[in-house]
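Recall the central idea of this unit: under ordinary conditions, the amino acid sequence of a chain determines the structure it adopts. In this exercise we apply that idea directly, starting from the sequence alone.
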Amino acid sequence: MSLAILRSRAQFGIDAPLVTIEAHLTGGLPALAIVGLPETAVREARDRVRSALLNSGFEFPARRVTINLAPADLPKEGGRFDLGIALAILVASGQLPTDCLDGYEFIGELGLGGELRPVRGVLPVALQAQRAGARLVLPQANAAEAALAPDLTAYGAEHLLAVCGHLTGNAPLAAAQRAVPLDGACVPDLADVRGQPAARRALEIAAAGGHSLLMLGPPGAGKTMLATRLPGILPPLTEQEALETAAVQSISVGGFDVRHWGQRPVRAPHHTASAAALAGGGTTPRPGEISLAHHGVLFLDELPEFDRQVLEVLREPLESGHISIARAALKAEFPARFQLVAAMNPCPCGYLGDAGGRCRCTPEQVRRYRGRLSGPLLDRIDLHVELPPVAHELLLAQEHAGAEPSAAVRERVQAAQQRQFARSGCLNARLDPAGLRRHARLTESQQQFLARAIGTLGLSARATHRVLRIARTCADLAGSEALDMPHLAEALQYRLLDRRPHSAY
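Accordingly, the structure predicted from this sequence is:
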């Protein structure tokens, strides 16, 4: 048979679309042509495949070989099609049985000696293969990642000869077994934080309702300590959330480490990061920091030091939970359901309002510093909390009585989230206006109180909705189905920061 057809998978955003590899042998001068919109690395497969076949003891057909990667309008990149191309040539030239490819999908890069090398983006391929009911053959180095896909039969191989032995039945490969690490990540404990009861309370509310948080305070007040302890009070990832998180990381530059399975990602990009690094991009779109923080925490320290245009890319993902990267010929969409935690100083020197008089910033300097953050962005951050300096007595004390550990806070957070999912099927931060009206009903006196607060603080409609969502979370933490006045008052105090004049600091 001079024609062979098998299945592989490309990478397109978070998806792994099916690619059919067709090999056709015809008469004429010996040549190997690859068509189907291949990029440079795919075209270079001609030399890799030829050397791998010869060094593995096979014959490379002395005929004209045409490889078609269909569909032709889907860009193909990387060395992931090497294994499929080599097997298609072997079947088309009669060196492998014609029916040995049925029910399989293949992915993997070939070395010149025939060894199989790992590729990126294996987990999305495994998930799509599982949905298609196919078995997957891939490099051994990727087998542990592919085994994370539920109900998938995946075979890892070290060499092209091992794959051929499996397909002919002479030396079957063992199916990859799922091995989930038993030890979780070592997350800092909230008990390490000295003082800052208001900030600890805001962190608990943020965790319980999925809210974004902005902390403002002088250097050394504990902003970074609190942010790094947020994952420790969040509930464990569900199976679906863990798969989504791992799939995004799988297609990133660094790939996915199976030892981090089930751990919430924490991303903390430097303030010199570009908009493409934060949102994602490239000629072939790759996920940025906001997508790599999917179902995790995105911590932006020194928030005003970020370029303003960079921060503006956060606005839509904060609302929608996804981001679309558009290029002239294609458009990729990545999930971005992250929890934003930001920190900033009250002024350029960081000591505005210090009792010792260390701040020498003028009101104009403070205004320009605060003006680096746009109003629409601040409107989208749910909780604003101010951190005072930590008292020296707390820092120097050998024992810190009353410091609540992360485990105790996490229990309350889990209970509050269970109430939210039972009531509305989502966290309070994601309630739409209709759901907010159903689950955050106000009495007449509460409506009047909120109307006065809106007029006094000049809150926008978006900020008002955020106040109601926060109040709903406060009620859930208290185990109350009805919103009480204390819940509403507490929610309003987390919107005062961005409205307070600079002279008040």
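The chain has two domains: 3-168, 190-504.
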